Amino acid sequence: MSRQVFLYDPPERFVAGTVGLPGRRTFFLQASAGVRVTSVALEKTQVAALAERMDELLDEVVRRSGGSAAVPAVAPTENPDSAPLDSPVEEEFRVGTMALAWDGDEERMIVEAQALVELDAESEEDLAEAEERLLQDEENGPPMLRVRLTGAQARAFAKRALDVVNAGRPPCPLCSLPLDPEGHVCPRQNGYRRGA
Fold first, then answer.
1. Residue-wise over 85-110: b if at least 16 C-beta within 10 A, else e?
2. Which residues make Cβ contacts (< 8 Å) with residue 173, sequence separation at least 6?
3. Going by fewer Cβ within 10 Å, which terminus of the chain is more open, N or C?
């Protein structure tokens, strides 16, 4: 079966968002152009890592270009995208591997999110070899979302993604673990329940 690539070059909208209540949220990346919408599920930590690495990569592009690249130093403040994910949110796949790159010729950030794949391996060497084959197989690999963004779109995505990650449950002031609406068993209080 040939690889399915969901390509958005450029997307009209590329955002991170959630479905569900804090503490039970499912995180998604969603790209759209016209009537086409692609949503892929991923973990909260993957969203945070993607946003942080995007900002780091954009900062490096600005530094190396001496400020001449078409990349804003911070996310644009006019018309921030705070709308919810486009409905219906239908998961195409769960993300396993992500990659970022900068196309210097076209001044675009390339974001790739590849479907999670289970690999059978007898040893660490076999696992590394299987992973390498998987990444190199353009024709028969797992489904992939590939998005090409301008510097401004990438900055806006990173800001919103970090806002979405931080919009969950507030942290406990003592142990920094998330507070549940039903109460919190704080290890620093020897397990006594605290109200939210």
1. beeebeebbebbbbeeebeeeeebbb
2. none
3. N
Residue 18 in 3-state DSSP? strand
How, if at all, do strands 184-185 and 193-194 pair? Answer: antiparallel
pLDDT digits 0-9 by tens, 160-196: 999 999 887 788 888 888 877 777 778 777 755 555 5
Distance CA 104, CA 64 (A): 11
DSSP, res 189: G
Using alpha carbons only, what angle is made at residue 175 by residues 169 and 181, rounded to the nearest 5 degrees? 30
- The first and second tokens of residue 29, run together, are 């990346």
- Alpha-carbon distance of 187 to 190, in angstroms, equals 5
Is 48 exposed, middle or buried (CB count within 10 Å of its CB: 0-12, 13-18, 19+)?
middle
Looking up tokens 């109460």, which residue turns up? 183
Question: pTM score, two decimals?
Answer: 0.81
Q: Name the residue type at position 12.
A: E
